[in-house]
């Protein structure tokens, strides 16, 4: 006959294995999620950088940039392919909190690239498809909450995009487009706030971003009205004064608005 | 976002809200049952040993009534979404586990096993992914059991039962030895485990008081006191 203590020890021995396995898996997923976050952030910076530096003279200037961004995003997708087995079946929701931040950052990057290319918000199905294998089988079911929260962050990127490029050729028209778009996003997201807890917080941030764009667009309209010349010509005048000035002034000051979040460093080589 | 996308998402989110409400109903129901059980079990502190079996007999049907709740939950929760909703009933379930463990200890003096709890609460293996009993919740239930037993050790003596503290002491030490084998992270389970030593100390003091005054027969076996 086993003593009581022996049977207790035996049971707890099994629990230990199970608990250790759980913690280890969680750690692994947090690590990968962090990698996904970092890579996604780099893609966002890459897109911003390329959009403000690239000479915008071809018909769709953003296409080349987006292609580079998308290539980089494939690395993030590979990370999710890699954790596929770790988050199978009920495990996904068990570890949802570990993978959620990375997912949202990825959706933000993908959503930003998608906007630059199509001028629309990436759809849920498109995001899910990007997180599926070549046969279209999802690595996991993307939570609607993460989709919405990730998308909500795109508006912040759009604000940076609109404002930092405002002095560029076509930048003022673009700022107005972005302004209208972000306004629409805000309205669309508002419907979902009762369902997704954290979304209201993000809506507040979106409101701030929207206000910044609106102020910038206002300034364009007010100042533009003083000169009765076509916008193209205004572009040329600005471009000229910048080129004569650029030898003394760093281009960086123009990007002063750009917000490098959390002081994250980013690699210029990507 | 195009409007059809908005509509579709809205619809899906609406479904989640409905599901949440249905689960909530079940949780409220389970909560009622566990509160009743805890209420009855609270009487162990003032019940003489000979009346304990009768008390336990009145709790058992209440425990078994949790089976209908378990089945209802398993039917509600979509496959693989167990962990998504689990937090809603965690507390109630832990109380049910605690009650089952306390009943088992008072009846047999033994630690109830995880599969035994599942059986009593009617949680079936094939529901995995929809409704299950995670180790973590079982362990939380056991810690509540130790908390309760440290009180019982004191109150048993008040009732003139001088052997109970010794029996409790042996049991709790076995359990503590089990818990000590776990590598716990800095979570609630860890914090509650850390607090177990105070329960242990309290029980030890009762055992000490009782033994010193030769109120209880000297304990057999070497490892206690």
TrEMBL record, chain A:
Record carries keyword Nucleus: yes
Molecular function in Gene Ontology: sequence-specific DNA binding
InterPro entries assigned to the protein according to its UniProt record, in alphabetical order: Translin_C (IPR016069), Translin_fam (IPR002848), Translin_N (IPR016068), Translin_sf (IPR036081)
Source species, domain of life: Eukaryota
A cellular component annotation (GO) from this entry: cytoplasm
Keyword terms: Cytoplasm, Nucleus
UniProt family annotation: Belongs to the translin family.
Protein name (record): Translin
Source species: Suillus plorans
Automatic annotation (TrEMBL), chain B:
Localization, UniProt: Cytoplasm; Nucleus
GO MF annotation terms: RNA binding; sequence-specific DNA binding; single-stranded DNA binding
Gene3D superfamilies, per the entry: Translin, domain 1 (1.20.58.190), Translin, domain 2 (1.20.58.200)
One GO CC term on file: nucleus
UniProt keyword Ligase present: no
Originating organism: Suillus plorans
Protein name, entry field: Translin
Family: Belongs to the translin family.
Pfam family, one: Translin
PANTHER family per the UniProt record, alphabetical: TRANSLIN AND TRANSLIN ASSOCIATED PROTEIN X
Keyword annotations of the record: Cytoplasm, DNA-binding, Nucleus, RNA-binding
Signal peptide limits: none
Location, primary (coarse class): cytoplasm
Biological process (GO), any one: RNA metabolic process
Kinase found in the keyword field: no
